[in-house]
Amino acid sequence: MSADPVLTTDRLVVGRSRQPLLPAVDVAVRPGELWAVLGRNGSGKSTLLRTLARVLRPVSGTVERRRGLRVSWVGQRTAIDTTVPARCRDVVRSGLSTGWRFAVPLLGSSAVDEALALADATALANARFHELSEGQKQRVLLATAIVSDPELLLLDEPASAMDAASERHLFDVLDRVRADRRTAVVLVSHHVDLTVARATHGIFVDADAAVVATGPIDVVAAAPAFRHRYALPDEPCA
Amino acid sequence: MTDPANSLSAFLELWEFFGSATLAGVIAGATLGALGVWVVSRRMVFFTATLAQTSGLGIVVALIAWHAWFAVEAAHLHELHAAPGPEKTVFTAAAAFVVALATSLVLVGRADAARRDAWLGWGWIAATAGTLGLGGLVSQEDIPNITTWMFSGRGDGGILAPEDLRHVIRTCVPIGLLHLWWFRGFAATTMDAESARVRGVPVGVLNGALVVSLAAAVSLCTWELGVLPVFAYSTLPAIAALRVSSNLWRAFLLAMAIGAASGFFGFYLAFRWNLSVGATQAMTAAAFVLVAEAIALPLGWWRARQRAARPSAG
Fold it and tell me: Can you tell me the distance from the alpha carbon of B314 to that of B308, in angstroms, rounded to the nearest whole number?
C-alpha cells in the first residue's frame, strides 16, 4: 500500500528568467522512495531539483509539499565560505536549525554524533571543514542533511567528488534512512549505472530534445529517449 | 617612566569623569565586535563604513534643512529660544539615511552579492561626495559641529554625559542579546543561506534583523562615539577573532571580548598618553588584529603538521 506523497508536482515547468527549460513534469514522491534525476550536462537536472527545493520559482505549474514537511538539501557546490571558521561538528550542528528552531536552546549533541556516524564521518568531527578533501566534505554535508531527521532529502550530485567505494556507501546510507526513517530522497546524479541500480524511481530530463520521462526506474531506463541519450542498446539488460 | 598621574589607578580614580565614555566604548565595542563576526564572515566589511558615511550625509542634509526651516520659522515667530535645537533633527536624519540605505541593501542583497557590493560602493561614494558637496552650504559655525559629530562623536575629549551612556546601553544591550539568542539562526544563514532557506529557516527575517540591528547600532554609536571607533569596532575585533577561532561561536565571544577590551584599554591609553580617544580605541583594536595574526601563523603551521602526521580519515 502506498503512503500519501510528501511532494507532488502539477504541470510543473521549470526554467530560468521565466523561460521554460523542460516540458511539464508531474511526479508524486512518497516516503521511502528514491527518485533519481538523470540527464546529460545542461539538461535541466539541477534547475528541476532547485525548483523542487523552492530555491527557484516555477515558470508555471505547482510544487506541493505535505504540510509541515521537514526538508533538507545538499547543493552542488560547497556554499560555506572559507572565511567562516567551522569544525565538521559545527557544520553538522547547523543542520539542526530548521524553521524557527534556532530560537530554542539546543540540548545535547547525540543527533550530531549519530549523523556523523551514519555518514561514516565520525573521525572528521573535530577537523576543520575547509581542510577536508572534497569527498570528505560531501560526507560531512550528507551528515548535515540527515541530522534533522528530514522527511524529504534533496541532493544535487552528492557523490561528484567521491571515489567508487564512498559512492556505494552513500547509497547504503540513503537506503538506511529510507528504510529506518521512511525518508524520501530525490537526487541528481551523473553516475547512471549505480544510480539506476539503486533508485526506485527516475526523472529523465533532456532540455535539447524537450523530453521528460518519469516513473519507476525500470520504466524510465527503458524509455527510448533515455537509451538514445546514453547510447544504450534498445532493450535494457536483464 | 610612567607618570603616576597617568597610571591605571589614577585613571580609575577619575572614573566619575571618564566612566560614562569608557563604559560606552566598552559596550559599543562588545556589541559591534560581536556583530562584526557576521559582517566579516559575510564579506561585508565595507558595509559599516558605508553606513557611517551615510550618517554623515544625513547630518549635513539635516543641518541645511534645520537652518532653512526651523530656524527661519522660529525667528519669524520671535521664538528662537523655544525652537528645537538641531541635534534631534540631525540625529533623526542621519538615522533615517542609514536605515534607508540598509533597507535597500537588504532588498538588493537578496538578488546577488555582487550587486550588493556594487550598491555598497555606490552608497559610499554618493554619501562622501554628497557630504563634501553639500558641506559648502552649511554655515561656518556648524562646520566644527559636523567634524565633531562625524569623527569624534559626542564623547569628544573623553567626556560623555550619563544620558548618552544610557542611549548606548538601551540600543546596544537589546541588540547584543538578540544576537546571542538568535545566534544559531545567524550562524546557519552565514554558513549556507541556501540550505538554511530550504530547511525553512526564515533567512529573509534574519538578514533583515542583522541589517536593521547593524544600522541602529552604527548610527547611534557613530553619533555618540564617532565614525572611526565605530568602523573599527565593527570590523577589527571580528577579523582578529575569526583568524584564531575554530568556530563561529568562539569567534563571536572572542570578538565581543576584544571589542570591549579595545573600548576600555583604548580609552585608558588615550588618557595615559594624552591621545585622541576614538583614534586610540581604533588603534587598540588594530593591535589585536596583529596579535591574532602573530598567533594564527604558527598555529596554522602546527595544524598542518598535525594533519600530515594523522592517518587519513578517508
Answer: 14
DSSP-derived 3-state class of residue B109: helix
- Closest residue in A to B38 (Cα–Cα): A84
CA distances from A223 to A23, A39, A195, A196, A227 (A): 16, 13, 16, 13, 6
Count Cβ–Cβ pairs < 8 Å, chain A vs chain B: 113
Residue ranges of domains in chain B, CATH in brackets: 4-307 (1.10.3470.10)
What is the distance in angstroms between the Cα of B30 and the nearest Cα belonging to chain A?
Answer: 20
- Three-state DSSP state, B276: coil
Which residue bears the cell 544510480? A195
Segment B43-81, tens digit of pLDDT:
888 887 787 777 777 777 777 777 776 665 555 555 545
**pLDDT tens digits for A100-125?**
989 887 665 789 999 999 998 999 99
Look at residues A148, A165, A195 and tell me which one is the last residue of a structural domain.
A148
Quick one: which of B283, B223, B229 has its CA closest to B32?
B229
Nearest residue to B281 (alpha-carbon basis) of B47, B17, B32, B5: B32
Report yes or no: B90 and B63 within 8 Å, Cβ to Cβ: yes
A74 in any annotated domain? no
Cα B200 to Cα B178: distance, rounded to the nearest angstrom: 20
Residue A2 shares a structural domain with residue A15: yes
Contact A98 B200 (CB under 8 A): yes
Three-state secondary structure readout of A116-144:
HHHCCCHHHCCCEHHHCCHHHHHHHHHHH
